[in-house]
Write a structure and sequence with these properties.
Its EC number is 2.3.1.225. With 324 residues, the chain is mostly helical. It has helices at residues 3-43, 49-79, 100-104, 162-194, 199-228, 232-236, 269-277, 281-285, 306-314; strands at residues 108-111, 120-122, 127-129, 134-136, 141-143, 148-150, 155-157, 244-247, 254-257. It folds into two domains: 3-82 and 160-230; 100-151 and 234-314, no CATH class. The chain has nine helices and nine strands. It binds zinc ion.
C-alpha cells in the first residue's frame, strides 16, 4: 500500500468512527422536529389531536425500526465482525498447513488453480482465505464474505452484518419517506395559512430528502446484489470472473473451473434472499437472528448452486443437491 493509500485509508477509518454519531444525531433531531414542532407545537395547539398522535406514534415506530438493525450492525462489528485470524509471522502458502483440514473436509472450495488445489492465500494476514473472504485494506484484515467498508456504519460489512445493513437501509428509507411527506404537507399548509415558514421546518424537509435519496440509491444497488447472491466486490468483475473449485475429497479431489461470469453461489432469487435475510419471512423484517449463511457445513463455506452440481457431474463425481 502506498503512502497516499495509507493516508486515505486512515481518513476513511476516522470518518467511520464519527459518522455513526452524526447519523444517530441527525435522525434524532429530525424525529424531534416531527414530534416537538409539527405534532406538539402546531397540531396539538390547534386541537388536531388525531393527526398529532398519529405522527408521534409512526415517528417513534419508524425511529426504532431503523435504529435496531443499525444498533445490531454497530454491536456486531464490535463483537463478531467476521475477521480471519492472522497466521504465524513466518507462514507462507508453501509451508503453512494450519487450518487446511477445514477446507479439505468440505465437498468443494475455491482453490488457486488446477495444479494447486490449495485455497487462496492472504499474504498480509498470512492465512488461508475461506470462500468469498476478501482482504479489507481499511482494516488491514481479511473479512468473511466482505461486501464493502462502509463509513455510514463505521466498519466493514461482511457475512455477520449484511442482513442488518439491508434492513437498516429499508427502514431508514421508509422513515425518510414518512418524514418528507409529513413535513411537506404541513409546511405547505402553514405557508398557505400564515405565509411564513420557520427555518426548522425547512430543515425538516431537507434532511429526509437528502438521506432518503441516498438510502434509495443504496437499496437500488444492493437489492439486485441480494437477489443474485453477489457481494459488492463480486459484482465488480462479475462478467469475466472465473473460479477454480476443488471438488471432492482426498485422492478423488479434482479442480474444475467455471465459465466466465458464472456465480457458483447463485441458488435463485428467493433462496439467495433467504441465505442472507433468514429462512422465515418474519426474520426478513426483524433484526434478531443472524443470517443462515453463517451456518457452515461439510458441503461448502456457503451453499453452492447448480453450477457446482454441473461441475461435479462433469468431474464424474456424484451430483449433490445444495443443503439448506
Ligand atoms: Zn488478509
Amino acid at each position: 500500500m502506498s503512502q497516499g493509500e495509507r493516508v486515505a485509508s486512515r481518513i476513511v477509518v476516522w470518518t467511520a468512527l464519527v459518522v455513526p454519531f452524526l447519523v444517530i444525531g441527525i435522525a434524532t433531531y429530525e424525529s424531534y422536529l416531527l414530534i416537538g414542532q409539527f405534532a406538539a407545537n402546531y397540531l396539538l395547539r390547534q386541537g388536531r389531536d388525531g393527526p398529532a398522535i398519529a405522527i408521534i406514534v409512526v415517528t417513534v415506530i419508524l425511529y426504532f425500526a431503523w435504529f435496531l438493525p443499525y444498533f445490531r450492525i454497530l454491536s456486531t462489528l464490535g463483537t463478531n465482525p467476521g475477521l480471519i485470524p492472522f497466521g504465524p509471522d513466518d507462514a507462507s502458502p508453501l509451508s503453512y498447513r494450519g487450518g487446511l483440514d477445514e477446507f479439505y473436509n468440505k465437498a468443494a472450495y475455491i482453490c488457486v488453480s488446477v495444479d494447486e488445489k490449495l485455497p487462496i492465500w492472504c499474504y498480509t494476514c498470512k492465512n488461508w482465505k475461506p470462500d468469498r473472504t476478501h482482504h479489507c485494506s481499511e482494516l488491514g484484515r481479511c473479512v468473511r464474505k466482505m461486501d464493502h467498508f462502509c463509513p455510514w456504519v463505521g466498519g466493514c460489512l461482511g457475512e455477520t452484518t449484511y442482513k442488518f445493513f439491508i434492513q437498516f437501509l429499508a427502514y431508514a428509507f421508509l422513515d425518510c419517506l414518512f418524514c418528507l411527506i409529513t413535513s411537506a404537507v404541513l409546511v405547505a399548509e402553514r405557508k398557505r395559512v400564515t405565509g411564513s415558514i420557520p427555518g426548522q421546518w425547512v430543515v425538516a424537509i431537507v434532511l429526509p430528502a437528502v438521506f432518503g435519496f441516498f438510502c434509495f440509491g443504496m437499496l437500488a444497488t444492493h437489492i439486485p446484489m441480494l437477489l443474485a447472491n453477489r457481494t459488492t466486490i463480486e459484482v465488480l468483475n462479475k462478467s469475466h470472473v472465473v473460479h477454480w473449485l476443488a471438488i471432492g475429497t482426498g485422492a478423488d479431489r479434482v479442480a474444475k473451473n467455471t465459465s466466465p461470469g458464472e456465480n457458483v453461489w447463485d441458488l435463485g432469487p428467493l433462496l439467495n434472499c433467504k441465505q442472507v435475510l433468514g429462512d422465515s419471512y418474519v426474520d426478513w423484517f426483524l433484526p434478531i437472528r443472524n443470517s443462515p449463511c453463517l451456518k457452515k457445513d461439510a458441503e461448502g463455506e456457503f451453499v453452492f448452486g447448480p453450477v457446482v452440481q454441473r461441475l461435479r457431474g462433469e468431474s464424474g463425481l456424484e451430483e449433490k443437491k445444495p443443503v439448506l
